[in-house]
Structure formats: structure tokens, C-alpha cells
Amino acid sequence: MAARDELAGPHNFGCSTHCEWGFSVNDMRSSGPVSSSSYLGRVKRAAATILLAAMPVLGLGVVTGCAWKPTILRADPSLTSKDLVTGRVAIMPVKFDDERVGPRERALLAGQFVRALRQNRQDIPIASSAAHDRALQGALEEEALFRRVYDDGGTDPSRLTELKATVSARYFILSRLHYEQVPHGAGSMGGNTVESTLSGKVSIVDTTSGGVVWEGEFQSTRSGVDNMVDPHPSAHALPFFSTFVRAWPAQP
């Protein structure tokens, strides 16, 4: 399922909300004398405006708790929540299908994936090492080393063994991503704000068997978070990755 997000603020978590106000608090004011009934009517309209304006804040818990779900492409029935807890997971650097997204944005995305996992599944340990940390932080040499896991579909036994010696985890989490931007209106100038979509697949690879034991896909669309010359897929990252984590095998 795709999440369409039309709120430009950084704290929206994937639900579409759009409001248009047809009146203003200034309706309470008038340059001339008004009748009592007219004045009371304007007061009521102004009060309604204030209440409606407060609704996005009052409803934040609902917005952040939207039940967006990825499309699950593969789910090994033998994979359990206990397996993820006891085996530990290691989040690999993200991989885009082109090089337009730079190392800083890739590092921000990886960091938000870690954050999504910690927020949604505190029971699952996240494996790490010095080299792995540098890879997630965008150090090009280490990032290139760990991104080799994507070669051969992420299931090459020798590659998995090599990387497992560097970061001790049974499960590697791979993210294959695509980022698309569409300029608003007829203009296509580089500085124009755009509608952007982050889409892709997240896979759980069992380094013991060399198989993909879980895989899902999802896409998130937002407006006004970046422009053509300065893409920011990381603006989608926390709600995007949270949808995957929440779909993993749950605690019994």
C-alpha cells in the first residue's frame, strides 16, 4: 500500500491530510457597528476556526499511528520474532538504482532505518561494529564494502560469510530503493518544489541459509520537501522504514 503524504512538515508519518479554511479569526472584527446576532455568529465562526486549526495537533497520535502496510512479497513461515531477537539484525547501507542520491542522503536514510527499528521493535538487537558504523555514516570505502552484499541478489554465501565476520548478525537487512521527482505545474526549473516518491523493497536475508526469509515493498509520496537539484529522500525515511519494521513477525 502506498502512503500519500501532503503535509510538508517533517513530523508527518505517512497519512494524507488536507484542510482548507473558509473563514478567519479576523471575521470577529468589523469596521462598522454590528448587531448582537451578527456579532455572535462571527464569534461562533471564529471559535470553529480555532478548533479546526487545532485538530492536526490534537490528532497527532492518530496521524503518527496510521496503519500503512507494505506489500509482502515473501514471508518464510518458519521465521519468528524470537529468531530476529536471538539472531540479531544488521542494517546494511541502502542501495539506490542510480547514483543521483549522494552519500550524505544515503547515510541519513540508514540512520532513520536504525531509528525506526529502535522505536518500533526495541526487543530486536541491532548488531554493529566500527567498520559497519562508518559504512552507515557514509564513509565511502566501508559503505562500498558492505554494499557488495547486494551483488548476486544479496544471497551469495561467500559474500555473506565475509561480511558476517565484520558484523556479527544472523540477519542482514537490505534496502533497494528508487527515488522519483515530478515538478509541480508546467514549470520544470531545477529550483521548483516537486512531488517526490520514495519506493523500494526491504529484504531480510538469513546469513546462515543464504536465503531471503522476508521481503516487502512500499512507496511514500510527499510534496514540497525538496527540489530537482537538491533531492531529499531522507524526508520520507522514518515513516517509510517504520512500515516495514511493523510488518515483521510480531512478538507472540
Rg over CA atoms, rounded to whole Å, is: 23 Å
Strands, count: 7
Instruction: Give helix % range.
Output: 25-40%
Shape from CA axes? globular
Count of individual helical segments? 8
- Class by SSE composition: alpha/beta
CATH superfamily of the largest domain: ABC-type transport auxiliary lipoprotein component
Description:
The chain is an alpha/beta fold. It has 2 domains: 2-61, no CATH class; 70-247, Rossmann fold. Helices cover 35% and strands 23% of the residues. It has 8 helices and 7 strands; from the N terminus they run E-H-H-E-H-E-E-H-H-H-H-E-E-E-H. A hairpin with a 4-residue loop joins strand 6 (193-206) and strand 7. Helix 4 (103-120) packs across helix 8 and helix 5 crosses helix 6 (140-147). The longest helix is centred in the N-terminal third of the chain and has 23 residues, at 36-58. The protein is globular. The two termini are 25 Å apart. The relative contact order is 0.19.
Give the helix/strand layout:
Blueprint: E1 2-5, H1 36-58, H2 60-64, E2 71-75, H3 81-87, E3 89-91, E4 95-96, H4 103-120, H5 130-136, H6 140-147, H7 157-164, E5 171-183, E6 193-206, E7 211-227, H8 237-247
Parallel strand pairs: 1-7, 3-5, 4-5
Antiparallel strand pairs: 2-7, 5-6, 6-7
